[in-house]
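Why this split exists: single-chain examples teach little about how molecules sit against one another. For that reason, every record in the complexes split bundles all components of an assembly together and asks for one structure covering all of them. Below is a record exactly as it appears in the raw files.
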Amino acid sequence: MTTEIKGKVFCFGDDIDTGQIIPGSYVVLTDPYELASHVFEDVAPEFRSQVEQGDIIVAGKNFGTGSSREHAPKAIKYAGISAVIAKSFSRIFYRNAINIGLLAIVLPEADKISKADRLTILLEQGKIRNHTKGEEYNFALPPQIMLDIFNAGGIIPYTLNVLKTRC
Amino acid sequence: MGLTVTEKIIANKANLATVTPGQIVEASVDVAFIHDNNGPITLKQFSRLPRTQVWDPSKVHFILDHHSPATTHRAAQHHQNIREFAFKYGIKVWEVGRGVSHPVMAEEGYARPGRLMVGTDSHTVGLGTFGCLATGIGSTEMAGVLATGKIWLQVPETIKIVLNGHLPFGVSAKDVALLLLKHFGPFFLNYMAVEMEGDLLQDLSVEERMAITIMGLEMGVKNAVMPVDDTVLNYLRTDETRETVYTADNDARYASILNFDVGQLEPMVATPGLPTNGVTVGEVEGTKINQATLGSCSGAFYHDLLQAAEIVKGKKVHPQVRFVIVPNTSRVVTRAAQTGVLATLLEAGAIISSPSCGTCAGYEVGCLAPGEVCISTTTRNMEGRMGPGGKIYLASARTVAASALTGYITDPRNHLGGDAHGS
């Protein structure tokens, strides 16, 4: 199986917390598209109007730190983002992202990538091609169980499969 | 090779003789709790699993704590949906006003040694104070736990933190938490288990210990455990023979062991941006404030209210400061009412709100306007957390109370009776 993800890059810095991704006042929302309409509202208000389906976020260290709110990866996913690449992720955000089917990739050399670069992610090969810069980066694949959950479309379809096997 | 406490709990819950860091296991959950902030999505996701039952309703709890009592019409609807779901499956709901999820789980005796606990609150890690493995998970993952009672875990590396010495006059457990955060930064302990021990712990109540373990999340920890001693056993009204108490093997493998001496610790303040931005209070003393807050799971226990009351007793809050107190459980309010602490705080001019997560995340209680400054015992101070453009300094209840009186960030040691720097 080959999963290819293509998109242009939006850059964020270190320690972007889930409250900056989706402010606390919107956490009563559950509709993913309604959440997406407020993504990065306070810290990057231009993001919503510039993002296109399939685009990729590239961030620094500790992306998604803070609250466990899953509204954060949801808002990102339903804004059209196909993958988040970061130097590192906060633990709960990383699990949440994969659990809802948003690809999260750890890439220590993420700072080589710039805003508006065009990337192709070759998931199973653990490679990212930067077409703008003519570079290629290798990343370590996540544990098999996370790939299985992601490939199933998230933890709900994955759990459905698990429950079916048990019956 | 010996095992750490965290490794022993994971091995037991995964039904394995031993585990090693990095290994992925499927573990059985003992307690799962869900709050009203993440609960609505859990319910929605669970409904995508047709004809599925909740694996064990007696092990599941709902706690209505983030928007409590219902702060918006939408929150009221979420609460109603949660109550209906809970009734359908026979799950306990801890109602609005009872308090913040994990302190309530502690008070109600569900946090016990050796258990595996998952909560939809990131600060669930604080329950490791009881010698259990407690960690936060997201809403959708929780829907999976409700269906199966299982969760996959990667065995974390363990780091040991030894806290030695006795706290100087006017210095609190919260200052220890801010010291550790300053030392490790926001990410250094990501994915790691932490074991905390040392003679300082003998001086601290269960709640004061929780003030430290809860804040561990802000340096990324997966879980934090403390030793099960008489303080913990007495709190749970139990003894060692009735609990599954694990201790680390002598040859357990630690990623590192760090010693801290708190004997000379000064009151700490985390400057706006991250809880790890710790400085000593002297470095920011004089900064003007608009609001002073006691709140959150880690900063509004009974001891926080008591310590604040000792400072404001017989005095008045500065006229340009709002002193907002959001106790973290209903038992804290009851006890503070019985002991006179509540009256002292009210007479000084404090505003007491209903027990909830309230002001900590700007959930409709005690929000800030752009440019306003707050000093707070809450858990986080990221940009915009209490409202866009508001600035948050984190500190102990004593520092917050002293600042509420003067209108600027203030060293509490000058507002305590007797020799401010002596015993």
